[in-house]
Design brief:
The complex is a heterodimer of chains A (656) and B (304).
Chain A lengths: L1 E10 L7 H8 L8 E7 L2 E10 L5 E9 L3 H12 L7 E3 L2 E8 L4 H14 L7 E2 L8 E2 L3 E8 L2 E2 L3 E2 L2 E4 L1 E2 L10 E2 L5 H7 L6 H14 L6 H8 L6 E6 L9 H11 L3 E4 L5 E9 L8 H24 L4 H4 L7 E3 L3 E2 H14 L4 H9 L7 H5 L6 H9 L4 H8 L15 H20 L13 H14 L6 H4 L2 H18 L4 H9 L5 H14 L5 H17 L17 H16 L4 H9 L2 H10 L7 H17 L28
Parallel strand pairs in A: 9-12
Antiparallel strand pairs in A: 1-3, 1-9, 2-3, 4-6, 5-6, 7-8, 9-10, 11-12, 13-14, 15-17, 16-17, 18-19
Helix pairs in contact in A: 5-6, 7-8, 10-11, 10-15, 11-14, 11-15, 13-14, 14-15, 15-16, 16-18, 19-20, 20-23, 21-23, 21-25, 22-23, 22-24, 22-25
Chain B lengths: L3 H14 L3 E3 L13 H4 L8 E10 L15 E10 L5 H11 L9 E5 L2 E3 L4 E10 L2 E12 L2 E2 L5 E6 H9 L8 E5 L2 E4 H19 L2 H24 L8 H20 L5 H28 L9
The chains are: A alpha+beta (656), B alpha+beta (304).
């Protein structure tokens, strides 16, 4: 017989952003092959399954005993140890053997044993203890009730003094605190108590209701609200249109991040004087929630207005000097020094007067009340103040955008000045932190240096800036940037990892150049001759490595053996001359075209010729071949899957 | 409509009915109710404790000369400590809102993640900000560590922002318009009672406090505290050692730090160092408090 299963972990409100990852873990639970589904609200994590077996199947366990030759005494000892009569043993081949019937177990019992571990074994970003002190159980928030049912029976266990049972709780305010449930009526029982169990259904409800109120789409906010509510309901609120004089960035920041409201736009795309809030309750019959939210928003906007006016009393340029009181990092001094460095770096990178002005002004907004209140708006606020204070567009836009890109998905600054300031700011942070040993370790990266490095790479790559990585950084920072560059090429540009390694192994140069070489390599790689040739290049490299003589300064044609060797030389010089000045792709196609000549050479010419002069000349030929094209990519880094028979490596050469 | 003080009476009554000691504000300057010995020291150790008190909390840098409708140099918190936190602590908390006249079925209440940490106290906890119709009215924290010591009995700390809460209840837009009380002469507003503090302390904190003297005072209180901490170690009579006065010295240092900070007198390089100086004192005092409890079980004639 198969049974239905229900597990509900009743908790105090779990942070919304942690819920999906917890469900992901629960969905991997082993319920003896039964199909399961997971659901959650802020107060409950739920696993349901159908078709859970009542018992695990009986099994026959075969235990090998002593050899027959050991005699009866040994057999008796074995039987005793296994707790059976000697007669229960069988003789199979040369050995005694016990076939033991292991009866299956009730799944109810097994679950009672394993569920506490499953629940407490969930991984969370941060956990707490709430009973039994530091050694007590840990969870994301206190567990307050547990429903665990297999069929009609409670799976009995206890966690942190909470016994599993069959009683759930409804919505904190609107629902019952005591709802007896079965596996069949669980979801409907919750619904009657104002809990919508399915996150999909809550999400849909929010989507439909906010859309009906003209809310602007905001997927991230939608996700947050889906997991912060048990019974979401949208309402619309209004604010005084006079506040629309404040920058839209500030208004949106207040609505979205501080208040978790959706903004509303007019058809023109400008903000309208409305907002949409999502409550965790069924309605607002008296309009009290609307009124309350409007009041809070008004106070917030008032603050913003106050900050705007107060900040405007003093020009941004006059605030730069105040930065000596704003800490960049205890070991690295103030933002004033950072400002000086960033400005110098922008000048060094060839930034024009506007870019240098922007660099000088870009951190000054850290002294404003607006940024102290809305820290996420740093940079943006500076840009807005610059604009309001009459700075030309290249300056204010560069300040406005200089924190970009904030993530790999974010765009880079839109102007060249902005790109330079953003680049210099991030590079400076990296250089300074690396200088005093504040590199990220493992998962710890308190100064977001990976993001800064990723930003550097993204700007260099996407703005196609003409700086060489080696000129911008050295030592461990260069390696750090190189790692981010590899990541960028692999994950963002989608190149294969060995192609990335091959191109970067032959030197980095500018990122645009590396990208051009990668593009060419990726285009030529699928062609028939390329991978076999890459394998040959690897072989050449190994031969050169193991050779007891060094290649000479130049190939001596007189020493070339007529036939495959001379033909390879001819083919090589022809390709070399033909692709000179051509594109990377043409060059690589040219290299690939050498494959037949290389194959024939290896098939019929012994590199280790007896005559040392001939041998040296051969090595020189191979060396020239290898180095001539290695400025594009180090082909030995290419991982080739199946190599033709003629390219079988000799035993003393390492396998690819 | 209840006045400010009537709301306060109801909250105190509510927690009185749930077995809390109702304390009066601590008489040394603090930045938050958490810093009072009734919280900072009492949450340590294995002894259950329940207490509620209003704590005027001084944050010099938040002063706005009485001109901002929502920001105050000194605001008042109702601080509730339930050690250990009862199983139904959140329901009890929601009950307190009902007790001051909030019909929760007509409002939107949410618990949003907000963990708390105080570097100067070596303390942190896990919890939420409680949002009522989009407004933060309470900070709720399960303490995990205090003075660098893991807690045996995890307390719930409930901190109500009284000005915000009553402004909400009374439907006024500025805290200064809160009706504090009314009598035969009419309504007494929050501004009548507190505006002068806000104006004058803003002037003092931002413009006139003597920076050199503040530094000297900080040094003096720190020295006193350190001396006491050292004396505890040598003390042969630990049971009568003045741990509580030692802790007062920590509070003095913390307030002086806040004043210096508001004055813009703490430079970049000094800041982290000064915070550490105060934390070392707090951690040291927490340690000797726990030690004293262990050495000498607290007992008194006629008391359980």
């Amino acid at each position: 017989m198969s049974l239905d299963f229900l597990l509900e972990i009743g908790s105090e409100e779990i942070p919304h952003w942690m819920i999906p990852a917890a469900l992901e873990q629960l969905s991997k639970m082993d319920l003896f092959g039964a199909k399961l589904r997971v659901d959650a609200t802020p107060r409950r994590l739920v696993v349901r399954a159908t078709g859970v077996p009542e018992r695990t199947p009986d099994e026959v366990q075969v235990i090998k005993g002593p050899p027959l030759s050991a005699g009866d005494k040994a057999a008796a000892g074995f039987a005793k140890k296994q707790g059976v009569e000697l007669s229960a043993l069988a003789k199979v081949g040369e050995y005694y053997e016990l076939r033991k019937e292991v009866p299956g177990r009730a799944v109810l019992d097994l679950l009672a044993e394993t569920l506490p571990q499953t629940i407490l074994g969930l991984q969370w970003p941060k956990t707490m203890f709430w009973t039994g002190g530091k050694t007590g159980p840990r969870f994301i928030r206190p567990i307050r009730w547990i429903v665990a049912l297999l069929g009609e029976q409670v799976v009995p266990f206890e966690i942190a003094g909470v016994k599993s049972g069959s009683v759930t709780r409804g919505h904190r305010v609107l629902g019952s605190k005591n709802i007896p449930v079965t596996t069949a009526n669980y979801e409907s029982g919750l619904r009657k108590s104002f809990v919508i169990l399915s996150s999909d259904e809550r999400r849909k409800k929010i989507q439909v209701e906010t859309a009906a109120l003209n809310a602007k789409l905001d997927p991230e906010l939608l996700e947050t609200l889906t997991y912060i509510t048990e019974y979401p309901t949208a309402i619309k609120g209004d604010f005084d249109p006079a506040y629309l004089d404040l920058p839209a960035e500030v208004l949106t920041e207040v609505m979205r991040h501080h208040q978790k409201y959706f903004s509303v736009e007019k058809t023109s795309g400008d903000l309208a004087n409305h907002f949409v809030a999502v409550m965790n309750t069924s309605g607002d019959p008296d309009g009290l929630v609307k009124k309350g939210n409007e009041r809070v928003l008004k106070a917030r906007f008032n603050d913003a207005q106050f900050f705007w006016n107060a900040d405007s009393q003093r020009a941004l340029v006059d605030r730069v000097a105040d930065l000596d009181r704003v800490t960049f990092h205890a070991k690295l001094g103030s933002y004033y020094f950072k400002t000086e460095r960033v400005k110098a770096l922008v000048a060094q990178l060839g930034g024009d007067a506007d870019a240098q002005s922007a660099a000088w002004l870009c951190k000054a907004d850290l002294t404003t009340e607006m940024v102290k209140e809305f820290t996420d708006l740093q940079g943006i606020v500076g840009g807005l103040y610059c604009k309001a204070q009459g700075e030309p567009e290249p300056v204010w836009r560069a300040v406005y955008e200089h924190y970009k890109p904030l993530s790999m998905d974010d765009s880079i600054p839109s102007t060249q000045g902005g790109q330079l300031v953003a680049l210099a700011d991030k590079l400076d942070t990296l250089q300074q932190c690396f200088r005093v040993g504040l590199m990220p370790t493992g998962s710890k990266d308190p100064f977001a240096l990976r993001r800064a490095a990723q930003g550097v790479i993204k700007i260099l790559a996407e703005a196609k800036l003409d700086y060489k990585l080696n000129d911008l950084a050295d030592g461990t920072l260069r390696e750090f940037l190189l790692e981010r560059l590899k990541y960028y090429f692999r994950e963002i540009s989608g190149f294969k990892y060995d192609e990335v390694n091959a191109v970067l192994a032959s030197g980095v140069g500018t990122i645009a150049d590396a990208e051009a070489r990668l593009t060419a390599l990726a285009a030529v790689r699928p062609t028939e001759n390329f991978e076999p040739l890459a394998a040959s290049f690897k072989r050449i490299q190994n031969i050169l490595k193991q050779a007891d003589v060094r290649p000479g300064p130049m190939i001596l044609p007189s020493l070339l053996e007529p036939g495959p060797e001379a033909e390879l030389h001819t083919a090589f010089t022809q390709v070399r001359d033909r692709v000179k000045g051509e594109s990377y792709q043409q060059a690589l196609q040219g290299v690939a075209s050498l494959r037949p000549a290389v194959d024939t050479f290896f098939d019929s010419v012994l590199v280790n010729a007896k005559d040392p002069a001939v041998r040296t000349n051969r090595l020189t030929l191979l060396h020239s071949l290898l180095t001539e094209f290695s400025t594009i990519a180090d082909f030995s880094e290419i991982v080739t899957s199946n190599q033709p028979a003629s390219h079988q490596l000799t035993p003393n050469q390492p396998v690819v | 409509m209840d006045s400010f003080q009537q709301t306060l009476f109801k909250l105190k009554r509510y927690w009185d009915e749930r077995g809390a000691i109702i304390q009066e504000p601590y008489d040394v300057e603090v930045g938050a109710g958490t810093m009072c010995p009734e919280t900072f020291l009492r949450v340590l150790g294995p002894k259950p404790y329940r207490v509620a008190y209003v704590q005027p909390s001084r944050r010099p840098a938040d002063g706005r000369y009485g001109e901002n409708p929502n920001r105050l140099y000194k605001h008042q918190q109702l601080q509730v400590i339930l050690k250990p936190a009862p199983e139904d602590v959140l329901d009890q908390y929601l009950g307190s809102l009902e007790a001051i006249g909030i019909d929760l079925s007509k409002h939107d209440i949410k618990f949003e993640e907000d963990n708390w940490e105080s570097p100067t106290l070596g303390a942190w906890g896990i919890g939420w900000q409680v949002m009522l119709d989009g407004m933060e009215i309470t900070q709720f924290t399960y303490f995990q560590q205090c003075g660098g010591i893991d807690l045996d009995l995890v307390p719930a700390e409930i901190t109500y922002g009284l000005e915000r809460l009553t402004a909400f209840l009374q439907g006024v837009e500025s805290v200064y318009d809160i009706e504090w009380t009314r009598n035969e002469n009419g309504v007494v507003h929050y501004a009548d009672v507190r505006l002068k503090d806000e104006q004058q302390f803003s002037v003092y904190n931002f413009e006139m406090a003597n920076v050199d003297r503040l530094w000297r005072l900080l040094g003096e209180h720190e020295a006193e505290c350190k001396e006491l901490l050292a004396k505890y170690e040598e003390s042969k009579e630990k049971e009568r050692f003045p741990v509580l006065p030692t802790y007062d010295q920590v509070l003095k240092c913390s307030n002086l730090f806040n004043l210096l900070d508001a004055r813009g007198a703490i430079s970049v390089t000094e800041r982290v160092g000064v915070i550490k100086r105060v934390r070392d004192l707090a951690v040291g005092t927490a340690r000797i408090w726990v030690d004293q409890q262990n050495v000498v079980p607290i007992k008194r004639e006629g008391c359980a």
